[in-house]
Design brief:
The protein is α+β, with helices and mostly antiparallel strands. 48% of the residues lie in helices and 17% in strands. The chain contains six helices and six strands; from the N terminus they run E-H-H-E-H-H-H-E-E-H-E-E. It has a four-stranded antiparallel sheet, covered by helices on one side. A hairpin with a 7-residue loop joins strand 5 and strand 6. The longest helix is centred in the middle third of the chain and has 19 residues.
């Protein structure tokens, strides 16, 4: 993925390290090694604080999709859900104990993404505009040139699962999952 400036888009190593953990946990270590071999990744391993080409992430996910028959979007959503416990542990100091799914989503851009950028200025998380529509609905406008809405939807579902609210939260993607801007409705049964 090349940006408008012609530079290669880079992604934080934590995303790759956690992708490896996701693949190994869902399948096994040899599946991870085979994926890297098939897509031609030759460096030793991903490091938490490193920066790596975003194209590598997409190549790994698309190869996994081809190998498993699971659509890439679905894999990205599963990966997003998998990320939640680690993300909430890492950013615990930015989360108020009384928050649940609704408050987490309402505060993600300011609290979580703000913290991500503050802790490592090389990162570029997606932009989220969260709008309240009454007390039972949030509308999330996801903006990212990386077009990784599946991860965002998975994270939303993972947050609801983390707080034991999966049966009370409905997540509906309203537009093309591979667009730069994707609108996501999150409805709450109270």
């Amino acid at each position: 993925m090349t940006t408008e400036t012609g530079l290669q888009d880079m992604m934080h190593g934590s995303i790759f390290v956690l992708l490896k953990r996701f693949v190994e946990g869902t399948y096994d270590y040899s599946t991870w090694v085979r994926l890297l071999e098939k897509v031609g990744v030759e460096h030793a391993s991903y490091q938490m604080q490193g920066m790596y080409p975003t194209d590598e992430l997409f190549a790994i996910v698309h190869q996994a999709s081809e190998d498993t028959g699971i659509p890439a979007y679905e894999l990205m959503e599963q990966y997003g859900e998998f990320l939640v416990p680690d993300l909430l542990l890492v950013y615990k100091k930015y989360i108020k104990p009384e928050w649940r799914t609704y408050e987490m989503l309402l505060n993600t851009e300011k609290s979580m993404h703000g913290a991500v950028k503050k802790e490592d200025s090389r990162t570029s998380p997606p932009k989220l505009l969260v709008t309240q529509q009454g007390e039972n609905r949030l509308v999330i406008d996801y903006y990212s040139k990386r077009r990784m809405c599946g991860v965002a939807v998975g994270i939303i579902k993972g947050i609801a699962k983390y707080y034991g609210e999966s049966d009370m939260v409905t997540v509906t993607r309203m537009s093309d999952p591979y667009a730069e801007r994707v609108q996501i409705l999150v409805d709450f049964k109270r």
